[in-house]
Amino acid sequence: MSEVFSFRLSEEFVNKYNNVPAPFGFTDAGSNSLGEVTFIRTYSRVKEDGTKERWHEVCRRVIEGMYSVQKNHAKDNRLPWNDNKAQKSAQEAFQRMFELKWTPPGRGLWAFGTPMTMERRNSASLQNCAMVSTRDIDRNDPGALFAWVMDALMLGIGVGFDTLGQDKQMSIYAPTEPAIVYEIPDTREGWVESVRYLINSYLRQNQPIQEFTYDLIRPLGAPIKGFGGVASGPAPLIDLHTRIRNVIGSRAGELLDSRAIVDLVNLIGTCVVSGNVRRSATLALGAAEDEGFINLKNPEVFPERNSYDSEKPGWAWMSNNSISATVGTKYEDYVDLIADNGEPGFIWLDVAREYGRLKDAPDYKDSRIMGFNPCAEQPLESYELCTLVEVHLNRHESKEDFLKTLKFAYLYGKTVTLMPTHWQQTNGIMQRNRRIGTSLTGIASFADTSGLPALREWMDEGYEKIRHYDHKYSEWLCVRESVRVTTVKPSGSVSLLSGATPGVHWGPGGEFYLRAIRFGNTDPMMYLFKAAGYKIEDDVVSANTSVVYFPVASGHKRSEKQVSLFEKIGLAATAQKYWSDNGVSVTLSFDKEEETKFIAPALNMYEGQLKAVSFLPMGNKTYLQQPYTEITREEYNSYVGTIGKIDWSAIYDGKDNLDAESEKYCSTDACEIKLY
After folding, report:
1. Is 59 tagged catalytic?
2. How many helices and strands, by DSSP H and E, does the chain display?
3. Of these residues, 59, 129, 271, 375, which one is catalytic?
4. Phi and psi (nearest 5°) for 337?
5. In the annotation, is 377 catalytic?
6. Helices (H), 128-257
7. From CA 150, how far away is CA 158, in angstroms rounded?
8. Is pLDDT at 620 greater than 70 in this prediction?
9. How is residue 310 annotated by DSSP?
10. What span, in angstroms and rounded, lies between the C-alpha atoms of 576 and 357?
11. Which of 61, 79, 331, 444 has the CB geometry, 3.0–4.6 Å to 600, for a possible disulfide?
C-alpha cells in the first residue's frame, strides 16, 4: 500500500515501536486489557498477507495518511513543504497517538491511510455524522434527499434530519401503469438510486409504477471489498422496497407530513442495518407543537411502526427523536414521555446559531445551521458532515503536556477538511466552514480527581490554544479558518482504548464491574477467551452468539448511578461554556423513580446554557446479560484470579478475517444490546 503515501515516517523511528506493548486501558489483574480486546475486535484491519494490524501499525497508517494529505495539498497548490520539519512533527504525532493521548474517531482509526481514502481522495468514510434538512423537498427531485441519506448511512455516517418538509404541503401520489423496470447494479450507488426512483414515483405527479430486478446483486455471504464485511444479498433491499410501497404508497392522496418523512428515513435505516455490518444512527428533529411527531414512538398511537412482532417488525427504533425547543419552552409537557422512553430530546437551535462557546459573546457564525448530528455534538448546515478527533484527558499528567497534544489532534481534524467527498453539495459547505470537532474524553473522571476549577482552566486555555493553531495552520495551508473547532462527542468504544470515562459522562459500571460483550461463536477470539477461563454464556437474544464477561477495575471514583441529574447537566454546561464552540453530546441518565420530578426544573435552569440534551431513564430493573454489572472489589479479585493471560499473537498473526464494527452512535455502549 506504499503507493498511496507521499509521506513516510522514518523506518528507524517506527522500528523502535515494533516490540513496545501498546498501553491500552482497563488492564485486569491477569494482564489482559479490555482496551486491546476492543481494538482487535473493532479497529484492527486485516492486511494483505492475512495478518491483523497491531496498534503501532494503525498509528503509522493514520499518521502517514495524515501527513501525505498535507503534502499533497501543498504540492497541488504549489505551497512550501519541508520534509525534515514534517518528519519531526509526524514523529511526535505518532508518539502521542501511540500513547493514546489523542486518537482519530473510530472511523478514522479504521479508514485513514487506506486506499479507500487515499486513492479515491474521498473523506466521507472518515466522517462520523451528518445533517440534512427537508426544507427544500418540494424541488423537482424529492427522492434525491432520501437517496443522500441512504448513501451516507451505507457509508456508516449517522444522519440527523428535520421534518420541515411537511410545511410544503406536498401530496403523496399513486403511480400509474405502465410500469418501468430498473435493473439494480451490484453497487452501493445502485441500491441508492433504486430508492430514489421508488420514492419519486410517490412524491412526483403522473409517475409510472416503479419495479426492479435484483439479478445483478451478489449473493448472501460474498465478501465486500473496501469497507469490509460480507454481502447481505438482495433481501434487505427487496424488503425496503416492499415496505416503502406498503407504508408510503398506502397514503396516496394524503399530504407528506412529519410521520411520512420520518418513516422513510427509518425504513431506510432498517435496510442499512440488516444489509451491512455497520450500525445506522439517525436523529429526527421535529416541531415542539407537532403532536404527531411527538407520538411517533407511542405504540398506542402508531402500533405498526412500534411493533416488536418478529413477523411484522416496526421501525420506530431507527431514530432518536428530538424537538426544536426555544428558551421558555414548557418542558413540563414532555416529562411523562421522557420518563417512559427517554424522548423527546431537546435542541435549542437559536442558542446554537447565536453562540460558539457559551462564555463568549454571540458571534452568529452558525446562523445557517439547520440541525444536529445524531449524537448532537455538532450543529450543522444541511448536507454538512462532522469532522471529529479525540483527546484523552486521563493520559495527561500536566496541563502543558495536554496543550502540546492539542496541536496534533487539531491537525488531524484540519487535515481531513482538505479532502473532498463525492457529494458536490457537501463539498461547498465543508470547504466554506472547515468545521472540526476536537473532543475531550475522560471529562467526568478528571472532574472527580482534579476538581472543576482545574477542568475549567484546562478547557479554557486549551480552547485558546486550538484557536491559535487554527490561525497559524490555516494561514500555512491557505485555507479558511474553521468556523468551529471544539466539541464533546459521546466516545463509545474509543474511550475504552485508553480506559477513560466516555466524553462528558460518568462511567456506567462504577469502580469494579463486569463488561458483557457479544461475539459470534465462530470468532477466533472465542477460543482464546475459553482457554483463558473467562465467564461465557450463550446469548439469550441471538443465536450462534456468546456473551463474554470482562472484569474491569476502572479506576473511576463514581458511576453514573451515583451522580445526580443536576450534577450531570451542570458538567455538560461547564463543557459548553469553557470548551465546546460546537455542542456537547450529553445523555442525562436518571433514576426514573427518584429523579423524574427534577427533569423540568433542570431544563428550566440550564436552557440557554446548552445547545442540546437527551435523556435515558435507568429504572431499577435487572436484565439478563446487561452490558454493565457492578461488582465488589472482592468479586473482582476472585474472578481475575481464575483468568489466564492471553497471547494475542494467535489473532494478530493468523489468517482469520474478523469483521470490524464502525463508531457507535450513542452516548454509552448501553445501546449495544436491545432488550425487548
Report:
1. no
2. 24, 20
3. 375
4. -65, -45
5. yes
6. 142-154, 188-203, 235-247
7. 10
8. no
9. S
10. 6
11. 331
